[in-house]
Every structure is written in C-alpha cells, then in structure tokens.
C-alpha cells in the first residue's frame, strides 16, 4: 500500500508509488483505504497509551528477490529515524542471541524509498502524540518482514511471468517456506515482553532461558 499520504524523498520510480491510475499497481490513492483506517484505529486504541513498554508491531508480506528483509522506519527518507540505536540493538539481539542471521536488517529506505508507507505514518504519529508527555518511555516499534520468494525459481522459472507467482512461494513448497519463519516470529513476539530499561545504554537485551 502507498496511501498513508506521506510523500517520499526521491522515491523508487513507479514501485515507490504512482498517481497515474488506480488501475495500475502501487497507486497512492486519495487517502487511507478502509483496511488502513482499521489498522490505524487498532494500533491507536491498543497501544498508544500503554505505559513502560516495548511495543513491536509487524507487517509480514512476500516480495521480490531471494533475500529476506527485516525493515524499520523510514521508507520515505534515508534520514535515520529517532530510534535507530534501539533498532540496531534489537537487530543484534535477533542475530547474535536468537540466531536469525539470514536476514538483511535496516531501514527500508536502504533497499528502496516509497511514498505513503503506513508504518512511517504510525511511527511519527505515535512520537507526535507523546512529544509533550513527561517521562514517557514506551516505544512503538514498527517492523516489516519482507519474505523473498524467488528461491524456487530454478524449480519454477515461469513464476516470474505469473501475476501471483512473482510475489508468492510456489504451491509445492508453500508450507515448508512458511514454516521457516516460526522461530523468528516467536522471538519477535518475545520482544514485547521486554521493558525500555532492558535496552538502556550500551546494553543489548539477553533473556536467560529458564
């Protein structure tokens, strides 16, 4: 989706969002789509007033290429987001403590820049909502897991020419593909059990196994 209303700085041509026609992919729209409004309402009602918490939220979708990406804000600009140091600590935790070393971590804009990213808008709205709050330490941390689905091209080269095939794993190994991410999703959920103090200073959070 490209309909949050945020305009990107030097967006990726066409794929970064277009206003040519609603009948073409990546249309930026004229405002939030109903499902986007529902997502914003859910996040606002569920998380905006939660105190003393790390609040990770995840967009999980398939995409181009053979590399799995874990992205954080921003998508609209290459300027680092205010929580870059915390995101980098989470990256180290997921890679070195949890063993998720086969992902490419970083802001989405390192891969490509887009208009209208929903996580960018929610992230900035959350920060703006609490900019005058005294001693507010909770962090809303949007992340995107983009699953590269081209690893099976050798077995199914014609998928590149199918509308659904170009973004999705082949049907013959879909269950196997999805199963590879269970461990990452488990450890992502566990991030929500941590507190802001667990990530203070140069400390990288490591939860001891019982």
Automatic annotation (TrEMBL):
<protein>
    <recommendedName>
        <fullName>Zinc carboxypeptidase domain protein</fullName>
    </recommendedName>
</protein>
